Amino acid sequence: MRFPVALMSVSLLGATALAEGNAENGETVFRKCRTCHEIGPNAKNKVGPHLNGIIGRKAAARDGYAYSPVFKGLGEKGVVWDEATLLKYITKPNDMAPRSKMVFPGLADESERKDLLEYLKKFPE
Asked: Domain containing 109: what range?
């Protein structure tokens, strides 16, 4: 009886590990974003705002960046870039913010989205 329980425990452990992203892989995924965004100690706003401290920040709240009306509207509605909202957004940005400056089509691969999220977490404000 111990073997099936141990096997099930190992299986559950593996499923948990798959649910999390990998920040190192996320750095590679971020290359798709860096045409418009910067992140890191010396990050500045470009075509898009820099992404330091994005997790937990209200939409359109980065000082010194001219947000589109669409993003300003999200901020006024109280949208906060928590993990679930960011994962939804980076899947298909136009579904959440149509007619914004963001031209990126999104990340179809779930593992890339999770990896990118882990990478973004490395850069608090």
From this structure: 21-121
- Whether 14 is in a domain gets the answer no
pLDDT in tens, 93-107: 999 999 888 889 999
Beta bridge partners of 58: 80
Q: How many CB atoms lie within 10 A of CB 93?
A: 17
Give the list of residues 6+ apart from residue 60 with CB closer than 8 angstroms, or none: 67, 71, 72, 74, 75
**80 φ, ψ to 5°?**
-115, 140
Does the reported pTM lie above 0.90? no
What gap in Å lies between CA 73 and CA 60, rounded to an integer? 8
- Residues 34-60: tens digit of each pLDDT: 999 999 999 999 999 999 999 999 999
First to last CA, the chain: 50
Whole-angstrom distance, CA of residue 94 vs CA of residue 103: 8
Domain tally for the chain?
Answer: 1
